[in-house]
Amino acid sequence: MPNYVVGHKVPDSDSICSAIALSYLKTTLGEPTVPARLGELSPETKFILERFGFEEPELKLSYAGESLYIVDHSDRVQGPDDIDDATILGIIDHHKLGDITTSAPLECWIRPVGCTNTIIKMMYDFHDVEIPKDIAGAMMCAILSDTVIFKSPTCTTADIKCVEALAEIAGIDDPKELGMEMFKVKSAVEDTPMRDLVLRDFKDFNMNGNLVGIGQLEVVDLAIFDSFKDDLHADLKALREEGNRHSTILLLTDIMKEGSELLVVSEDESVIEKAYDVKLDNGRVWIDGIMSRKKQVVPPLQDAFGAK
Amino acid sequence: MPNYVVGHKVPDSDSICSAIALSYLKTTLGEPTVPARLGELSPETKFILERFGFEEPELKLSYAGESLYIVDHSDRVQGPDDIDDATILGIIDHHKLGDITTSAPLECWIRPVGCTNTIIKMMYDFHDVEIPKDIAGAMMCAILSDTVIFKSPTCTTADIKCVEALAEIAGIDDPKELGMEMFKVKSAVEDTPMRDLVLRDFKDFNMNGNLVGIGQLEVVDLAIFDSFKDDLHADLKALREEGNRHSTILLLTDIMKEGSELLVVSEDESVIEKAYDVKLDNGRVWIDGIMSRKKQVVPPLQDAFGAK
Ligand SMILES: [Mn+2]
Ligand SMILES: [Mn+2]
């Protein structure tokens, strides 16, 4: 029976590509391991897998009785629902430390860098295993995605160096150009149901007992939302009620202007206003410089809930 | 203001030596960091610090407003009481993943090896920093202590290789001989109050809402306990009541015979009997091969509580 590698619910490119990259590394090291996913792929991730010739990883929601590596998260609400009945062999992640616990020692590679794949590259280097060309390409795209082509405040020197090294292995001359091509795919929102857009990159967080769902759409020009922003906001409201969430937030991130508009639905807007020191206008506010959910949106909100 | 490195309450040699080793590494990398401790040193740890010329790290219980690295644990009950008011920069550990969480990304090096210092050695190698002779000696002793001179089932090839490399740096010809000398110091129990013995290497665990305290005394011959085993057991009983614990357990480990006698005081002995598939006789049982609290004692007990 092989081991599994799985990323978070509503998988993004980092979750999928790191599952592929880690399973190859572990298998090469003599531990048969296969990549899996907890949900449907985004257009961006499909673009990456097609570009480098990968199949979609197996859709697998239940892990009872299995052994697995967790990538790109360490929060229980983001992982498999029956994780308590599985054996966690390790966690590779670049977020805050969540509430997953284990009953036996394990392997954790957690670093404050821009992308899980940057850490997986460190693991390849540690074990002195060569990265195949196609895997290097997918890893590189995941880093460009998570760091918004190096523009996100989460981006570190390690991420930039890692992209350079992976581009060389993959034989890609201009990583940034490929990154822009990828973000244009990501910006395509026509003919997509509102709910699909809201959930395209959506994560739940348990903040001091309050369930908070935060989605993010990163696009090259925020104007594409103009004609249906009200519909997005309405769907965010429905999502909050259906999931008994305290709040739902959607970040509309303009990667060229380097900032985000927040759409907010909350049972107590003052917590959100306090967290970011802003005033909401009709549940909306533009904040300059906000690009990272992980680094700029979650920590202040978690603190605001903690202090309540 | 410097950062701190601190190990668990009732510090063992691994917690102290890894705090010393990590603070030197971080300081060398340009991040002023000092080692601290949450409690008194054991005779074994004092022996190591004297042997290699170190001062005792600062006794520091409160970390509110400070930034710190956590070593040799990730369980809240084992760490500083006011950890929620501190910033956790990283965790270096070799135990099960505990319930410490953070609100921001951090650095975690957690590996299923025999000792935290084995992981710290990997960090020195990663950053290409030379380990000073005296620090190498202290790290080496901590690994010999945690792995019971390689006899513990927690000991891995990585630990053995690490001791070899550190011995070479420290200029020590026979690490095992030094290890035996150290365990003889550890075995000296005359004129020690019962409570001091019970708490010498004692850890609390939150097992599915139940507080369980587990101590361990590793000696070269269990016969030294014969004359006061009843007194130890009585003190264990008192300790359970004072701390409102579900159970207290003391492992008397014979490192030559490679097994442990368990002294148990519990509000429900059947959980412990089920966990280890044994029958307690007057709250005691010898179990062949049990040497590691972390690998052989905690996981089955945690599972037994989980399944209750
Ligand atoms: Mn990621
Ligand atoms: Mn240890």
Number of helices of chain A: 10
Instruction: Give the CA-based shape of chain A.
Output: globular
Work out the strand percent of chain A: 15-25%
Our count of domains of chain A comes out at 2
CATH class of the largest domain in chain A: Alpha Beta
Q: Tell me which protein chains meet in the greatest interface and how many residues each side has.
A: A-B, 32 and 32 residues
Q: What compounds are bound to the protein?
A: manganese (II) ion
Mean pLDDT of chain A: 96
Oligomer: homodimer
Catalytic activity (chains A, B): diphosphate + H2O = 2 phosphate + H(+)
Enzyme class (chains A, B): hydrolase
Protein name (chains A, B): inorganic diphosphatase
GO molecular function (chains A, B): inorganic diphosphate phosphatase activity; metal ion binding
Describe this structure in words.
The structure is a homodimer of 308-residue chains. In chain A, β1, α1 (13-28) and β2 form a beta-alpha-beta unit. In chain A, the strands form 2 sheets. A 6-stranded parallel sheet of chain A has the order 3-2-1-4-5-6. In chain A, strands 7-8-9-10-11 form a 5-stranded mixed sheet. The first copy, chain A, folds into 2 domains: 3-184, Alpha-Beta Complex (inorganic pyrophosphatase (n-terminal core)), CATH 3.90.1640; 194-306, Roll (Diaminopimelate Epimerase, Chain A, domain 1), CATH 3.10.310. The model of chain A has no long low-confidence stretch (mean pLDDT 96). Chain A has 308 residues and is of the alpha/beta class. Chain A is 40% helix and 21% strand. Chain A is globular. The interface between A and B is medium-sized, with 32 and 32 residues. The structure holds manganese (II) ion (2 copies). Residues 14, 72, 94, 115-116, 146 of chain B line the site of one manganese (II) ion. Chains A, B: One of its GO terms (cellular component) is cytoplasm. Chains A, B: Residues 179-305 form the DHHA2 domain.
